[in-house]
Write a structure and sequence with these properties.
This protein is mainly beta. The chain contains three helices and 20 strands.
Length: 356
Amino acid sequence: MRRNARLAAAATPVSPLARMSVRLPALAIGLACLAIALAADPAAAQAPPPSGFPGKAPEGPPAEILSFTAEPAATAAPGVPVKLRWEVVNAYSLRIDPGLAAVPTRGDATVTPAATTTYTLRVTGTGGVKTESVTVTVAGTAPAKPTATAAAQAARPIPRLADGKPDLSGVYLGGRDVKLVAPARLKPGAEGFRVDPSADELGQGALCLPPGVPASTLLPYPLEIVQRPDVVVILYEAYNLFRIIPIRPAHAEDLDPLWMGDSVAHWEGDMLVVDVTSFNDKTRVAGYKHTQALHVVERYTRTAYDTVEYRATAEDPNVFAAPVEYAGNLVLHPEWQIGEYVCAENNKDYSELRGP
């Protein structure tokens, strides 16, 4: 069983937080994913839609800085190594200024201050931003002036490959920001495709089944994009899924229906456009089942060094009266790496705990 390090208790809707210390069994992960889907997706919930739709990510526990220290806190001369140590929970974004920028939720780093320096740990979670600072005193020096590290990183140029195309490569989190643009419009007579949001409905996550496209991008887990001039690979931590997306104009012929569909891509200026077809009919879009006629188009645009704008449209002429649209940002996390996710091992049904 993959014990999740990113979600808080599943009894209430949880934020797609990353690198959290609380761990859950796979069934609880299914509950958490369902809670996120219901909170962000009015088509999967009872009317009326959630307040403020498409609204913000579901509420969760606030970020907490458990510790932030400098050892030693004072040095006799400039350039003496100092070890910074920190531990944070419930945060999806962390940075230490000056000099370190993005960092993981638990770790250490060696700095060599040339003058008395105040280091500030800044963490962002569902409850907002929290900061904590430590000062390293260097004998015989005046305090160093603050530097605009965050602004400097935001101003970094968008990386490009040798062919001039934007390099989308990196580890990103999309689940907390990508949402429906508007409620799905159902085709008359297609009401039977609605998923019943009953108390026993745990979602596909409880069965460890692939969620499909674009749902994989909405999950509260990182994804990694690896780009070459002729192919783009997307690795999803959730369910150990991956997509190999060749840069070519057309799909292969006679494809079998797939959980994640068949993807090909082309460039429109600096936008990567991914065309996805050949789905099976076992996944869901906006709280509805769909047929094998589902067609998804994704658009990835790196708008800043740390941001990829993501847009997706899903069409199924047998279910929807108009394209279903998703939009949001994938946020770069250079301090993360994709972790192991094992869903099926020792997965248990805790339904008897709910009582009659």
